Amino acid sequence: MRKLLMPVLLVTLVAACGGDSPGGNDQSTTITAAPTTAQDGTPESTTVDVPDNTEATVAPEGTTTSEEAATPTTDTSTSTTTDPAGTTDTTVEPTTTTVEPTTTTSSTTTTIPEPDLPPSPLTGLGVEDPELLNRRTMAVKVDNHWDARPQAGIGEAEAVVELLVESGITRFMALFHTVDSSAVGPVRSVRPTDPHLLRHFNATLLTSGGQNWILRMFPRNGVGVIGEIGVGGYRDDSRSAPHDYIVNTAEFRAVADQRLYPDTAPPPLFEFGDLPSDAILGAVSRVQMEWAADNVISWRWNGTQWERHLEDGPHYWIPSGGEEGTAAVGSDEEASPAQEVRKIITADTLVVLFSRLFYARPPEGGGYALPTMETTGGGRALLFSQGQVVEGRWEREGTTQPFALSLEDGSPITVPPGRPWLSLFPEGRPVTW
Fold first, then answer.
1. What element of type H or E holds 15?
2. More confident residue, 42 or 262
3. For the chain, which has fewer Cβ within 10 Å, the N-terminal or C-terminal residue?
């Protein structure tokens, strides 16, 4: 009797299981799993290749896949919840996994990176509008007397050069090539160093006067110079004379065209590139420069940029358009839109070129001698960038050449792209870090 019952029982079990042989169900599977989250807080889908040439889409919970459900089956997923007390509750919930035979066509999206933007010759940074590269540099001689602070628009320049003048104070040369500012200043007079420095930049200088023997040096060096002509500049009534003349660099470009000054792009200020890693002397958080006994400034690394500080606090400047939410001049409180606003002067890279200081005198004996910096030859150089310092030398064969930086072995020092602040610093005076 038992021998008769066993075959019957086996036939019954096979019928109940549907008659499928193991591994015989060649179906594609759509798997629904927990969502991932993009940076903007919205769920994102991830497509993953699976071995059987199907496509598994990891989709946000509660969404449907592009494939319609066929034969629903029941699976289980486990979710874990931790309450404030630190205990963990594990709940087993049913989920639905849909399967159907399908032919899947997978597609691959290739993202082609945008070509690199052409670099600015003053910063090495990319410029979105290439047409802006095909024009002259506008240079502005900016006052740095204590009554001229906070300066306007200087933080909008692509590069700044600092030079010593009388009484131990300095003045700035703000350079605008692919950018402009509607309010830069206060603007002051020229000095003998200026035409020799600017010849390499193919620049036109905006100034507020100067001795005639110096003004005559500009055309001899192929540098355009424009003084106060009644357009493009104004006297700011909120400032005291002579620290009150403000200029719009864009408006003076048309004046330079009318005077037929060269409208030629400048060559690169430096050779841009990564810092020479094997020449880095170490990390730097503060650079102190003693221009004179009573004029000591410092640059402080904030982790991103160098911030300029005077002996009595940060050195501020005013944006030409103003920005709501920055501090008002003379106040530590948040500014209203109607208040004058200020920012700390910053730079991405500090380049210190130690140079010979001498006094230039007018050739015909008229006028008086003025402090002048040597801009050709060579000397010690310091490069502060990315919170690091590299020491080497600078060389410049002539006024039409750029400043070339090199290590003691003659290999070039490349300057990381960014807004540079170039200091022509009197040799023999201290720079510490």
1. helix 2-16
2. 262
3. N
